[in-house]
Structure formats: C-alpha cells, structure tokens
Amino acid sequence: MNVRIVPLFLLLLPACQLAPTAQSAAATRQPNIILIVADDLGYGDLGSYGQKLIRTPHLDQMAAEGLRFTDFYAGSPVCAPSRCTLMTGKHPGHAYVRDNWEAGGWEEGAAEGQQPLLPDTATLGRALQDAGYETACIGKWGLGGPGSTGAPLNQGFDHFYGYLCQRQAHNFYPTHLWNDDERVELDGNVWKNLTGPHYAHDLMSEDALRWTRSQQDNPFFLLLTYTIPHLALQVPEDSMAPYIGEWEDPPYEGGKGYLPHPTPRAAYAGMVSRMDRDIGRLLAQLKDMGLDEDTLVMFTSDNGATYDIGGAHTEFFQSNSDLRGAKGSVYEGGLRVPMIARWPGHIPKGEVTEAVGAFWDLFPTLLDVSGNEVIPEDFDGTSLLSVLRGNQTASERTLYWEFPGYGNQQALRQGDWMLVRQQLGKKEKTTTELFNLATDRSQENDVASANPELVLAMLARMEVEHTPSLEFPLKGIDTAPN
What's the pLDDT score for residue 426? Predict the structure, then answer.
C-alpha cells in the first residue's frame, strides 16, 4: 500500500500562502512532478533566453509564470553521461556512465543501447516510487538497451515509451519505438528516409498526454525526455511552414551520416516550435485536470547545442548565445543550459535567479519536493527547493565535470571562476585555462598565468573530485599546468 506523505515544506507555509485548491490538494496527495529534458537545445534557443528568430511562446509564458535560472548546467556535454548524473545525483567524477558507449553500429538492425546502469543503482525513478509516486519516462533513454539491467523498467519507472537507444533517436521517423519492454513497429517508416507517416516526437507527446490523464488520482513523476532539436533535421510541414522564406536558407546536402534537407534553418526552428507547442498542450491539460497548482514542471536541456553540422545552423540562430564552445566541450557552450521551473502558488512568478545549479542537484531537489525528509548523504548535488521558493541568496557552489570524449577534458566551476583542461594525457597539447565568469561569460580571456595559486588550488580540488573509472578512464590527470 502506498503511503501518501504531505511534504514538510507545505506544512510550514502559512495558510494564507496557499490557495484553497492547493490546500485541499496538499491534504490528499503529494505534488506531481514533470521534468522535461530537451536534446541538444542551446542556452540561447528560447525567447526567454534571448532567441530572436525561433518562436517559443509556451516556454516563454512558463518562464513568465515561474522561475528562470541564468546559471544552470547539464551533467555532461553529451547525452548518456548527462542523463546518468540526473538519474543518480552524482557528478561525472563519481557517476558510473561518463561518456557515450554504443552497443552496436549505425546500420538498421544493429544492437541497441548504451552503457547500462547497474542493477543496484539508486535512481531518481526508484526513489520517487518508494515515496509513493507513479513514474514514467517518455522520450529518449540512453542508459541501457532492450533487456539490459539499465532498461527503464529495471531502474524505477512503471512505464516507458520512446527510444531506448540514442543512436535510433538520430531519426525522427524510426522503424520502431519501445512501449515498456515491447518493440512497436511503425509501419510505413523507412530507415534513413527524411519523412514518413509516424513522427516519433508526436507519438511521444500523445503518450505523455495519455499517461498524465491516467494519473488524475495519483501523485506522479513524468520524465519527458524529448529528442528535439537533436539531429537529424526532420519535422512535419505544418511546423516548418511558418519559417519558410523568413531568411536565406541554403539547402543542406547531407554528409557525416546526417540526412540532407532543402530548408535546414526552417526545419530547426520548426522543430523547436513544435516541441514548444506540445509543452503548451501538456500545461493546458494540467489546468483542465485541476492539477495546475499541484504540479511542479521543470524544463531544461541535456547539453548545449551542437556545432554547425548536419545543417543545424546553430551559429545563425546563436543557439549557444554568447557562450564559448558547443556540445562535446566543457566550455560554457557545452554545459550551460536553460532551466525554467513553474509551480503556481509555490514558485515566485516571473523571477530570475543567478543561483548556480546542475543536473545532479535535481535528484535531491525532487526528493525534497516529494516530502522525503531524509536526503542521502552520497549525493554530489544539493536541493534547490529553497531557490525555487524564492531564496536568492544561494551559497557559493563548486561544480565538477570530467569527460573522456572529445579529447579528454575536465572543468571546475568554483564561485565565479571556471578552470578548463583539455587534451589530458597529451602533455605537449594539454591546456589549462582559467576564466572569471562574472566579467567574462564568453570565456575569451584566459587569466591562468595571472592567478597561479588559484589554478593550483582548483587543480587540487579536481583531483579530489575525480574517482578513477575502469569503464570510462580519464587519462593524464596531474597538477602541473602548462
């Protein structure tokens, strides 16, 4: 039997701060939680973060009705390890998955999946199940293929629908998706075709609406891991049409394994707007169900926008804003991502916070929201609940990343300082750079040589935060900067 726990923070609120509907809901159920994670969406891809060309009215309204973070970070600059930090509350120096690993190749019929989570992993899904929640993951998984120990039904989710394998998610018209542990064929979709009868994003959006409707009387946790705007560029005509002719849009001829597209800029913009549209539909349904004030909705991205490959034109859209680097890099452009949180009656309306947060904070934060009074000590993250409720005096944070891919990299943010190391293990090429983000968010000025003691102290902290990994070794760690 599930025990319904009234969250401690709700009990501490004065009665005048709770609308009658919220009071009655709080007396009978825990808050619902919806966490939406876009795929390769850059810091500058939303109107609320400065985007001028792509229209995102629903997410912009969500920011106007909630809290927008300026300094929030993904778990890693690529997909699978970023999702691992979210699911486990551990930063990349302690997490099990630290890079992308593939079970098979890119041809149709190849083995599916990435490095699977271990059977005894303490995951966010399991923790919220234990707290009395119905749980679902809909979208892209990437932490274990079919039948593996890492498959979502083995890691704390009651329902899954979408792509188990992130390689399959490179096509928005796949030949199949997965419903729980059953492979569902999408008749008429042809491998590597630009279009088809079944657009995966639409199928996942409908499943999210259906599953949420079924939870009218249950506290629920929905992890909605959309694949937009990850390549390839594919979107139905109705979402692309509003952007056709708005700008010069040279065709993308294909290459590097990606499909060609006649109007790639319109396609990219249309993809982001379609995701925004469907998030708007989900928010509207919460209101129709009478659950708007009883549901925390958060939106973020798994890493920064990709480089201009596959026709993405992220430089044209300034998808990573003024940040240096992109997906795959531990500069700000690969790691800093949007974060919007909305919870009417509980989160201040239209506020912006400079509090620093990261993916590994989400596990303890959502446990805190659920009413779990005991937060495990082995989290690398910290609960951001007080920030969500309007505390703008967050303490100084230290965040650590390591990434064996793309040249063996490390980064450490300590207060306003960020230390970036690349090409580890290649002494003649290894670089160690220091940036002051308070005055140089674009990381244009390396001030390592002017701050040798700070560099040494941050290198020592990197060494403390790194735990060696046999699966994903980070080679060449030392404390001697170039």
Answer: 84
Which parts of 338-472 are beta strand (E)? 339-342, 351-358, 398-403, 409-414, 417-422, 431-436
Tokens of 239: 């979402």
Q: Residue 294 in contact with residue 215, Cβ under 8 Å?
A: no
What CA–CA distance (Å, rounded) separates 431 from 451?
15
Report the alpha-carbon distance of residue 304 to residue 403 in Å, rounded: 14
CATH class of 28-395: alpha beta
User: Exposed (0-12), middle (13-18) or buried (19+): which is 297, by Cβ within 10 Å?
Assistant: buried
Whether 365 contacts 391, CB under 8 Å: no
Lowest mean pLDDT among 213-217, 243-247, 311-315: 311-315
* pLDDT at site 21: 41
Distance (Å, rounded) from C-alpha 126 to C-alpha 155? Answer: 6
Q: Which residues pair with 102 in a beta bridge?
A: 114
Using CA atoms, how far apart are residues 77 and 459, in angstroms rounded to an integer? 20
Helical H segments across 95-159, by residue range: 124-130
**Angle between helices 200-213 and 264-288 in degrees, nearest 10:** 10
CATH 3.30.1120.10 domain residues, the chain:
407-465
> 5: which DSSP letter?
-
Of the candidates 70, 476, 432, 138, the one whose C-alpha atom is nearest the C-alpha of residue 278 is 138
Q: Please provide the size of the chain in residues.
A: 482
Fold of 407-465: Arylsulfatase, C-terminal domain (3.30.1120)
Q: How far is the C-alpha of 359 from the C-alpha of 351, rounded, in Å?
A: 20
The alpha carbon of residue 375 and the mean position of all alpha carbons in its chain are separated, in whole angstroms, by: 22
Token pair in block for residue 183: 């492979």
Give the Cα separation of 139 and 163 in Å (integer).
Answer: 6
Cβ-Cβ contacts under 8 Å for 208 (sequence gap 6 or more): 136, 138, 222, 224, 282
Each residue's pLDDT tens digit, 14-71: 333 433 344 444 446 799 999 999 999 999 999 999 999 999 999 999 999 999 999 9
CA distance 87 to 154: 13
pLDDT by residue (tens digit) across 342-398? 999 999 999 999 999 999 999 999 999 999 876 777 899 999 999 999 886 667 899
CA distance 53 to 50: 9
Residue 205 contacts residue 143 (beta carbons within 8 Å): no
Selection from 303, 318, 357, 342 nearest residue 140 by Cα = 303
In contact, 292 and 313? CB cutoff 8 Å = no
- Of the pLDDT bands very low, low, confident and very high (cuts 50, 70, 90), residue 99 is very high
In order, the DSSP letters of 54-95 are: S--HHHHHHHHTSEEEEEEE-SSSSHHHHHHHHHHS--TTT-
SS3 content of the chain, % helix, strand, coil (to 5): 30, 20, 50
